[in-house]
Write a structure and sequence with these properties.
heterodimer, A: 92 residues, 3 helices, 72% helix, B: 104 residues
Chain lengths: 92, 104
Protein backbone atom coordinates (compact mmCIF):
# COMPACT_ATOMS: atom_id res chain seq x y z
CA UNK A 1 0.00 0.00 0.00
CA UNK A 2 2.85 2.39 0.78
CA UNK A 3 4.36 1.67 -2.65
CA UNK A 4 1.01 2.50 -4.29
CA UNK A 5 0.93 5.84 -2.46
CA UNK A 6 4.45 6.49 -3.70
CA UNK A 7 3.40 5.83 -7.32
CA UNK A 8 0.44 8.22 -6.91
CA UNK A 9 2.74 10.91 -5.52
CA UNK A 10 5.21 10.45 -8.38
CA UNK A 11 2.44 10.74 -10.98
CA UNK A 12 1.21 13.93 -9.32
CA UNK A 13 4.72 15.39 -9.24
CA UNK A 14 5.19 14.71 -12.96
CA UNK A 15 1.81 16.33 -13.70
CA UNK A 16 2.77 19.39 -11.63
CA UNK A 17 6.03 19.68 -13.57
CA UNK A 18 4.11 19.48 -16.87
CA UNK A 19 1.83 22.29 -15.68
CA UNK A 20 4.86 24.31 -14.56
CA UNK A 21 6.42 24.00 -18.03
CA UNK A 22 3.17 24.55 -19.95
CA UNK A 23 2.10 27.59 -17.94
CA UNK A 24 0.49 29.75 -19.20
CA UNK A 25 1.70 32.71 -17.25
CA UNK A 26 3.44 33.38 -13.99
CA UNK A 27 0.79 32.34 -11.48
CA UNK A 28 0.10 28.92 -12.99
CA UNK A 29 3.80 28.18 -12.67
CA UNK A 30 4.00 29.33 -9.05
CA UNK A 31 0.94 27.20 -8.27
CA UNK A 32 2.48 24.14 -9.93
CA UNK A 33 5.76 24.58 -8.06
CA UNK A 34 3.84 24.96 -4.79
CA UNK A 35 1.99 21.70 -5.46
CA UNK A 36 5.30 20.05 -6.37
CA UNK A 37 6.85 21.16 -3.08
CA UNK A 38 3.95 19.87 -0.98
CA UNK A 39 4.09 16.53 -2.76
CA UNK A 40 7.84 16.39 -2.18
CA UNK A 41 7.26 16.66 1.57
CA UNK A 42 4.81 13.76 1.40
CA UNK A 43 7.18 11.83 -0.86
CA UNK A 44 10.06 12.18 1.61
CA UNK A 45 7.84 11.00 4.48
CA UNK A 46 6.51 8.01 2.52
CA UNK A 47 10.00 7.10 1.28
CA UNK A 48 11.25 7.08 4.88
CA UNK A 49 8.61 4.53 5.81
CA UNK A 50 9.15 2.48 2.64
CA UNK A 51 12.90 2.18 3.25
CA UNK A 52 12.54 1.68 7.00
CA UNK A 53 14.28 4.98 7.80
CA UNK A 54 11.68 7.24 9.52
CA UNK A 55 14.47 9.72 10.31
CA UNK A 56 13.76 11.16 6.84
CA UNK A 57 10.85 13.01 8.44
CA UNK A 58 13.23 15.73 9.68
CA UNK A 59 14.08 16.48 6.06
CA UNK A 60 10.35 16.63 5.33
CA UNK A 61 9.78 19.23 8.07
CA UNK A 62 12.63 21.37 6.72
CA UNK A 63 11.36 21.09 3.15
CA UNK A 64 7.85 22.14 4.20
CA UNK A 65 9.27 25.27 5.86
CA UNK A 66 11.48 26.18 2.90
CA UNK A 67 8.67 25.59 0.40
CA UNK A 68 6.22 27.89 2.17
CA UNK A 69 8.77 30.66 2.69
CA UNK A 70 9.83 30.41 -0.97
CA UNK A 71 6.26 30.75 -2.28
CA UNK A 72 5.57 33.76 -0.03
CA UNK A 73 8.88 35.37 -1.01
CA UNK A 74 8.21 34.95 -4.74
CA UNK A 75 4.68 36.33 -4.35
CA UNK A 76 6.05 39.47 -2.67
CA UNK A 77 7.75 40.27 -5.98
CA UNK A 78 4.77 39.81 -8.30
CA UNK A 79 2.53 42.78 -7.43
CA UNK A 80 2.58 45.17 -10.36
CA UNK A 81 -0.84 46.86 -10.27
CA UNK A 82 -2.97 47.58 -7.23
CA UNK A 83 -6.41 48.53 -8.51
CA UNK A 84 -8.11 46.48 -11.23
CA UNK A 85 -11.78 46.06 -12.14
CA UNK A 86 -13.75 42.94 -13.07
CA UNK A 87 -12.10 42.47 -16.46
CA UNK A 88 -8.58 43.00 -15.28
CA UNK A 89 -8.38 46.58 -16.57
CA UNK A 90 -6.49 49.11 -14.52
CA UNK A 91 -8.79 51.58 -12.74
CA UNK A 92 -6.69 54.43 -11.41
CA UNK B 1 -2.68 -5.23 15.30
CA UNK B 2 -4.71 -6.12 12.24
CA UNK B 3 -7.16 -3.29 12.94
CA UNK B 4 -4.45 -0.64 12.77
CA UNK B 5 -3.16 -2.10 9.51
CA UNK B 6 -6.60 -1.92 7.93
CA UNK B 7 -7.11 1.65 9.18
CA UNK B 8 -3.70 2.62 7.81
CA UNK B 9 -4.40 1.06 4.41
CA UNK B 10 -7.78 2.79 4.12
CA UNK B 11 -6.32 6.19 5.07
CA UNK B 12 -3.39 5.80 2.66
CA UNK B 13 -5.70 4.75 -0.19
CA UNK B 14 -8.01 7.72 0.43
CA UNK B 15 -5.04 10.08 0.52
CA UNK B 16 -3.58 8.70 -2.71
CA UNK B 17 -6.99 9.07 -4.39
CA UNK B 18 -7.27 12.72 -3.31
CA UNK B 19 -3.73 13.47 -4.44
CA UNK B 20 -4.41 11.95 -7.86
CA UNK B 21 -7.70 13.86 -8.20
CA UNK B 22 -5.81 17.05 -7.44
CA UNK B 23 -3.38 16.31 -10.25
CA UNK B 24 -6.28 15.68 -12.66
CA UNK B 25 -7.73 19.05 -11.68
CA UNK B 26 -4.37 20.72 -12.22
CA UNK B 27 -4.37 19.49 -15.83
CA UNK B 28 -8.03 19.62 -16.79
CA UNK B 29 -9.42 22.79 -15.21
CA UNK B 30 -9.79 25.76 -17.57
CA UNK B 31 -8.12 28.68 -15.77
CA UNK B 32 -5.89 29.69 -12.89
CA UNK B 33 -8.47 30.18 -10.13
CA UNK B 34 -10.13 26.80 -10.70
CA UNK B 35 -6.69 25.19 -10.56
CA UNK B 36 -6.02 26.90 -7.22
CA UNK B 37 -9.27 25.35 -6.00
CA UNK B 38 -8.26 21.85 -7.11
CA UNK B 39 -4.69 22.10 -5.82
CA UNK B 40 -5.55 23.80 -2.51
CA UNK B 41 -8.34 21.54 -1.35
CA UNK B 42 -6.76 18.25 -2.38
CA UNK B 43 -3.35 19.35 -1.05
CA UNK B 44 -4.55 19.84 2.50
CA UNK B 45 -6.94 16.85 2.63
CA UNK B 46 -4.66 14.42 0.77
CA UNK B 47 -1.59 15.36 2.81
CA UNK B 48 -3.45 14.99 6.10
CA UNK B 49 -4.87 11.59 5.12
CA UNK B 50 -1.51 10.21 3.95
CA UNK B 51 0.28 11.42 7.10
CA UNK B 52 -2.48 9.96 9.31
CA UNK B 53 -2.11 6.67 7.45
CA UNK B 54 1.63 6.70 8.13
CA UNK B 55 0.89 7.54 11.78
CA UNK B 56 -1.36 4.49 12.04
CA UNK B 57 1.58 2.29 11.03
CA UNK B 58 2.73 2.69 14.63
CA UNK B 59 6.44 3.53 14.54
CA UNK B 60 7.02 4.95 18.00
CA UNK B 61 6.75 8.29 19.74
CA UNK B 62 9.52 10.26 18.02
CA UNK B 63 8.26 9.42 14.54
CA UNK B 64 4.64 10.05 15.51
CA UNK B 65 5.39 13.49 16.90
CA UNK B 66 7.31 14.41 13.75
CA UNK B 67 4.39 13.27 11.58
CA UNK B 68 2.03 15.40 13.67
CA UNK B 69 4.35 18.41 13.32
CA UNK B 70 4.39 18.03 9.51
CA UNK B 71 0.61 17.59 9.49
CA UNK B 72 -0.09 20.72 11.56
CA UNK B 73 2.39 22.75 9.53
CA UNK B 74 0.92 21.68 6.19
CA UNK B 75 -2.62 22.29 7.50
CA UNK B 76 -1.63 25.87 8.33
CA UNK B 77 0.55 26.75 5.35
CA UNK B 78 -1.23 25.04 2.44
CA UNK B 79 -4.47 27.08 2.61
CA UNK B 80 -2.42 30.19 3.38
CA UNK B 81 -0.31 29.71 0.27
CA UNK B 82 -3.41 29.07 -1.87
CA UNK B 83 -5.06 32.23 -0.55
CA UNK B 84 -1.93 34.33 -1.09
CA UNK B 85 -1.59 32.99 -4.62
CA UNK B 86 -5.20 33.73 -5.60
CA UNK B 87 -5.08 37.15 -3.91
CA UNK B 88 -1.86 38.13 -5.68
CA UNK B 89 -3.27 37.00 -9.04
CA UNK B 90 -6.48 38.97 -8.45
CA UNK B 91 -4.53 42.09 -7.52
CA UNK B 92 -2.38 41.62 -10.60
CA UNK B 93 -5.45 41.50 -12.83
CA UNK B 94 -5.62 37.88 -13.94
CA UNK B 95 -9.13 37.68 -15.49
CA UNK B 96 -11.76 35.26 -14.20
CA UNK B 97 -12.93 32.47 -16.51
CA UNK B 98 -16.61 32.41 -17.46
CA UNK B 99 -18.47 29.60 -19.18
CA UNK B 100 -17.85 29.67 -22.92
CA UNK B 101 -14.45 31.34 -22.69
CA UNK B 102 -11.46 29.54 -24.20
CA UNK B 103 -9.21 27.57 -21.86
CA UNK B 104 -6.16 29.37 -20.61
Amino acid sequence: MIAAVMVALLVTMVVALVRAFAGPGLYNRILAINVFGTKTVLFVAVAGFLFGRPEFLDIGILYALVNFVAVVAVLRLTHHRDHVDENGEEVA
Amino acid sequence: MIVLEIVSAVLLAAGALLVLSGSVGLVRFPDFYTRVHAAGITDSAGAALILLGLLAQGAGWATGVRLLIIMVFLAVTSPTAAHLLAHAARRDGVPVWHEGDPRR
